[in-house]
Write a structure and sequence with these properties.
heterodimer, A: 341 residues, alpha+beta, 60s Ribosomal Protein L30, Chain: A, Phosphoribosyl-aminoimidazole Synthetase, Chain A, domain 2, 2 domains, seven-stranded mixed sheet, four-stranded mixed sheet, 31% helix, globular, B: 365 residues, alpha/beta, Rossmann fold, five-stranded parallel sheet, four-stranded parallel sheet, 14 helices, 11 strands, 36% helix
Chain lengths: 341, 365
């Protein structure tokens, strides 16, 4: 099928994107064996799906460097990012698409490893990859591998969580420790050795969200705190809901090694990205039941109630520090930059 | 987190704050010189714990903040040269010169890289012998020894393509100039712990003696700062002006002689322009002739007159402690962390950035 080429020892050539024999070989030897499902293997120009009711639809691109890191890789991120966006919208993920931009020279063994990892993550989430595309660009026109995934999901009847629904009196929860993913990537990228025990939290959260919503049907807000971390998400939610969000520094779970790495680099763990955590806002009366449900799920074992929603000042996020003082929790200005000394 | 959590104990902090309130029988204003103190005070909300008549104001201790625009322009100009790899600490990247920042220069094609230590830049130079690798040397006595070591190492290893663009500054002359300002109304200095680890405490003796200002060298955790403020209050109330070390677990009277010897070997004192304070004789460092081959100034002399500050920018007066960030007309409007106008908004250690991030809207402060 691959014309005698040994795919596993090879690198991506421009010809792999030219639509000929090598393109077919790539599809049949790398992608289809891992992603196989009836909808995909029909190999139509579009996947045909059955659904009823309202649909949620989202897309995201993944360009992470390094491609592989402790706790995950670009493939797991590409699946989790889109699955978690659907889960945050209150949707049950139905199917994913995956489009790959490959740089000429990419080792096919690496691509195969990433595709296998992506397939395993999709299987763990219970969401099939039903359509896809591959392009190859000349060396230097992309950085090794970019992936874009899109996801479609069905919305159950009833009120869906939405970023404008945080209301005074609600409780604010997080599903686990913050900053794990971002600090893992930063320490890998910069070759820092002190963070050797750090692992990305990259994980699909649709199962945990389903368990939560079975117990608390009307969750007001779900949001995965990716880039910008908890601080950015809470500020967006405070603005979109027109409320004040107050959180307790001592209640926010942060792993010891993440705290240490942040202290050393002068970063705030609340500004650091997560890929397997959810911020949850729901009526205070439901908070204890929600916490128990989250903690009973493997993805939410370290969940915590971290604060509350109040009416004013609208659009603000306040942090009560460990010393009992209250200050503003602001969004990060841009890229996280280590401090001078 | 060991050695950190112990110094963030809420009950002890509140007890110290109560003792400060009980001891301070008059309005007292102290200046924290160091930007890391400014950030720690804001991040932990310490001003909310202090009684209203004990004020902490921010001085010129953020090295990024006091770097004049002309220096930043020079970094950017060197970074634009095609064979140059420009290396810098992270928080210089967003500091605006007259025509953009290192970050925007990078977006336009300059090869600008963040390093964590000057020796990383020497390693980069060794790995890229066909490129000139320039390190932007910014900082006080805290970072200058590491830069001196990098220059010395480059010379020793024959890494001839490593260059330093030196904008380092030293504290003693600047502190004296500040203390001599008749407009300054201060009752003492919260002195920088990191600088003092290198310099020792001798540099503060003339300040205490000549200007009758108490000096307490403080650590950077909440309990360190509160204890140091208590010591400052006690001195002020008792009419004493002495140099005391609160941060005794790191700072000694003699400092670090090995680091100072390295500084002395590589650098000589020079006049320096401080943003907001102007030229202060003997407050900067230049590379000695013996290491001139590693001086990036040979490629690009510093343009003559320092650039004027942006119109209406109050950074100069803020660095002198003569007004607060919120007093500036641009604060939070034209000038914010995403689009900083003046340098105090840029660095995370800057007085304006700290005030914007943690105190905007005067929440309990």
């Amino acid at each position: 099928m691959n014309g005698g080429l040994s795919m596993s020892d090879d690198i991506i050539l421009l010809a792999h994107g030219a639509g000929g024999a090598l393109s077919a070989a790539l599809l049949h030897d790398v992608f289809l064996p891992h992603f196989a499902n009836p909808t995909l293997t029909a190999l139509g120009d579009a996947a045909v799906l059955a659904s009823a009711g309202r649909l949620a639809f989202t897309t995201d691109s993944f360009v992470v460097d390094p491609l592989e890191f402790p706790g995950g890789d670009i493939g797991t991120l590409a699946v989790c990012g889109t699955v978690n966006d659907l889960a945050a919208a209150g949707a049950v993920p139905l199917a994913l698409s995956a489009a790959f931009i490959l740089e000429e020279g990419l080792p096919i063994a690496l691509l195969t490893r990433l595709v296998a990892s992506m397939a395993a993550t999709a299987a763990a989430a219970g969401v099939p990859i039903v359509t896809g595309d591959t392009k190859v660009v000349a060396r230097g026109a992309a950085d090794k591998l970019f992936i874009t995934t899109a996801g479609i999901g069905t919305l159950p009847d009833g009120p869906a969580p939405a970023p404008h629904r945080a209301a005074p009196g609600d409780a604010v929860l997080v599903s686990g420790t913050l900053g794990d993913h971002g600090m893992t990537i930063l320490t890998c990228r910069e070759g820092l050795t002190f963070g050797s025990a750090l692992r990305s939290d990259c994980a699909p959260l649709n199962g945990m969200v389903a368990a939560l919503r079975a117990v608390v049907p009307d969750v007001h807000v779900l949001r995965d705190p990716t880039r910008g971390g908890l601080a950015a998400v809470l500020n967006e939610l405070a603005a979109q809901s027109g409320v004040c969000i107050e959180v307790e520094e001592t209640a926010i779970p942060v792993r010891g090694d993440v705290r240490v790495a942040c202290e050393l680099l002068g970063l705030d763990p609340l500004h650091v990205a997560n890929e397997g955590k959810m911020v949850i806002i729901l009526p205070a009366v439901d908070a204890d039941a929600a916490l128990a449900t989250l903690r009973a799920h493997p993805r939410g074992a370290e969940a915590a109630i971290i604060g509350r929603v109040t009416a004013a000042p609208a659009g603000r996020v306040h942090l009560r520090t460990a010393l009992g003082a209250v200050r503003i929790l602001d969004v990060p200005a841009g890229d996280l930059l280590p401090r001078i000394c | 987190m060991r050695y950190v959590d112990e110094f963030r104990d809420a009950a002890l902090a509140q007890a110290l704050a109560a003792r400060i309130a009980a001891r301070a029988d008059r309005p007292l204003t102290f200046m924290e010189i160091c930007g890391t103190h400014t950030m720690a005070i804001a991040r932990h909300g310490l001003k909310a714990l202090l009684p209203p008549h004990v004020r902490l104001i921010s001085g010129p201790g953020c090295p990024v903040c006091v770097t004049p625009q002309a220096e930043i322009d020079r970094f950017i100009a060197l970074g634009r040269e095609p064979d140059v790899i420009l290396t810098s600490f992270g928080d210089m990247l967003r500091v605006p010169g007259r025509d953009g920042t290192l970050e925007t220069a990078r977006a336009r094609g300059a090869d600008v890289r963040v390093v964590y230590a000057p020796l990383d830049a020497v390693a980069l130079a060794a790995a890229h012998p066909d490129r000139r690798v320039v390190f932007c040397g910014v900082g006080f006595e805290t970072t200058a020894p590491a830069t001196a070591l990098a220059v010395r190492e480059a010379a020793r290893r024959g890494v001839t393509n490593f260059f330093l663009l030196c904008a380092h500054k030293t504290l003693p002359r600047a502190l004296a100039a500040l203390s001599a300002d008749p407009a300054l109304a201060l009752h003492g200095y919260l002195c920088p712990g990191h600088v003092s680890v290198i310099t020792g405490t001798g540099i503060y003796a003339p300040i205490a003696r000549d200007f009758h200002l108490p000096c307490v060298v403080a650590g950077f955790e909440p309990l360190d700062i509160l204890q140091a403020v208590y010591q400052l209050v006690a001195q002020a109330v008792e009419g004493r002006a002495e140099v005391e070390i609160q941060y005794a677990r790191a700072v000694t009277r003699d400092g670090n002689p090995a680091a100072r010897a390295c500084l002395e070997e590589v650098f000589a004192p020079a006049d320096a322009v401080w943003r907001g304070l102007g030229v202060i004789p003997g407050s900067g460092l230049r590379i000695r002739a013996v290491y001139a081959a590693h001086d990036a100034a040979q490629f690009l002399p510093l343009a003559g007159d320092p650039a004027p500050e942006p119109a209406g920018c109050a950074c100069g007066r803020i660095l002198r402690g003569q007004c607060a960030p919120a007093d500036c007309a641009h604060f939070g409007a034209a000038c914010n962390p995403a689009y900083p106008l003046g340098p105090c908004m840029v660095s995370s250690e800057g007085a304006c950035a700290a005030a914007y991030r943690y105190e905007r809207g005067a929440v309990h402060v």
